[in-house]
């Protein structure tokens, strides 16, 4: 499986994501600078976490309008797999690849700790090695992870099994509605999530709970 990691000014998790992808797939991802206009031929594009453009305006709003995102949108519409993590979730949501919005945490504070992440949908390219109901430990680090959407969108997300992850056992760190931690689009080829699974895949991380998520990419 070949992959690319998109890099914006202020992003700081691109190496974490690239290392996780290489460790599991055996292929080193291509790093794509945000001013490029065309993606390389890959199976997956990852938009990593960090603080693109210093989180000015809204988190991800400026990055979503970078030149490379035009090709990300175009190729996603044709089925390219896209994974957005943390700031990457914010960016692909601002780019219109996913519905809803990410707002300031309900406590108005930056949170950096582990949460328990419950797998709700195993029919995706990132969860097919998991079982529905599995709960894994996963780190978070964000100030704007409070997912919201209108009632119609929420009904569709719930009814169409498009909520991929929820915060489990009272660990919701940001007030996200219905404990939503990650969602997918209607076609199932775009996933956005706030927690950082790339930082819990090997013993040096203290836990490898999230490694099966990356292993799922090989079976997708």
Topology record:
Elements: E1 3-7, H1 14-25, E2 30-33, E3 44-47, H2 67-77, E4 81-85, H3 87-94, E5 101-103, E6 111-119, E7 135-142, E8 146-148, H4 151-159, E9 163-167, E10 180-184, E11 190-193, H5 211-219
Parallel strand pairs: 1-2, 1-3, 3-4, 4-11
Antiparallel strand pairs: 5-8, 6-7, 6-9, 9-10, 10-11
Question: What descriptors fit this protein?
Answer:
globular, two-stranded antiparallel sheet, 11 strands, alpha/beta, single chain, 220 residues
Structure overview:
The protein is of the alpha/beta class. The protein has 5 helices and 11 strands, in the order E-H-E-E-H-E-H-E-E-E-E-H-E-E-E-H. The chain has a 9-stranded mixed β-sheet with strand order 2-1-3-4-11-10-9-6-7, with helices on both faces. Strands 5-8 form a two-stranded antiparallel sheet. Helix 1 links the parallel strand 1 and strand 2. The longest helix has 12 residues. The radius of gyration is 16 Å and the shape is globular. The model has no long low-confidence stretch (mean pLDDT 96).
**What is the residue-mean pLDDT, rounded to a whole number?**
96
- Give the helix level as a range of percent: 10-25%
Helix/strand/pairing category: alpha/beta
Alpha carbon gap, first and last residue: 9 Å
Principal-axis shape: globular
Question: How many helices?
Answer: 5
| Beta-strand fraction estimate | 25-35%
Taking the sheet with the most strands, its summary is: 9 strands, mixed
């Amino acid at each position: 499986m070949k992959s690319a990691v998109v890099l914006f000014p202020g992003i700081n998790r691109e190496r974490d994501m690239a290392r996780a992808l290489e460790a599991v797939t055996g292929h080193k991802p291509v790093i794509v600078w945000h001013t490029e206009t065309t993606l390389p031929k890959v199976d997956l594009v990852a938009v990593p976490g960090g603080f693109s453009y210093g989180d000015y305006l809204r988190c991800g709003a400026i990055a979503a309008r970078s030149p490379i995102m035009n090709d990300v949108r175009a190729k996603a519409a044709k089925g390219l797999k896209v994974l957005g993590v943390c700031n990457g979730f914010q960016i692909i949501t601002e780019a219109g690849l996913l519905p809803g919005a990410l707002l300031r945490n309900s406590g108005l504070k930056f949170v950096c700790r582990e949460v328990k992440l419950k797998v709700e949908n195993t029919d995706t390219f990132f969860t097919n090695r998991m079982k529905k109901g599995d709960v894994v430990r996963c780190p978070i680090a964000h100030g704007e992870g409070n997912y919201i959407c209108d009632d119609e969108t929420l009904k569709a997300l719930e009814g169409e099994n498009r909520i991929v992850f929820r915060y489990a056992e009272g660990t919701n760190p940001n007030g996200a509605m219905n404990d939503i931690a990650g969602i997918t689009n209607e076609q199932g080829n775009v996933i956005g999530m706030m927690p950082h699974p790339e930082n819990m895949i090997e013993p040096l991380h203290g836990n490898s709970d999230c490694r099966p998520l990356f292993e799922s990419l090989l079976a997708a």
